[in-house]
Design brief:
seven-stranded antiparallel β-sheet; 152 residues
Amino acid sequence: MLIGARVWLWGLLAVCFIPVSVLAAGQIVIVSFPKNNMLLKVSLENEMRFSLSFVHSVSKTRVTDLYEIRGNQIVQIREYFSAHGAGLPSSPEEPDGIRWEKQKSQFVLHMERFIPKLVVRTDKNYENRLKIQSRTINLNQWEDQALQLYIE
């Protein structure tokens, strides 16, 4: 009886840990949009967050958007910027905004914005970058265009 209970317990523990590995995202896929030409696949190595950054065309300051991966969904959770400009948040009442704060010289909008289709318009003048942990991918390595990012 004791051996059967141990086997059952080990089986239960194994099942409890399966969803974590199944839900862990494998890679970010970057394709041209709307043509869907494959450009790059970037391994997430079990990292569940990534950021996209660019230089704002009006304020000429860096903006960084932080995303979280939930299953195969992308959720924007923060936006960091140092100067207000066209298209940047101006209050915590932004769509899906949770709260607003100032951290040293930056504004931070905390949010929970589900992104059904993440399309990024690149322009070499604006230094578009994808960062996963310590790796930085230059999204301007291809011609200026729209890129779609999704989780696979």
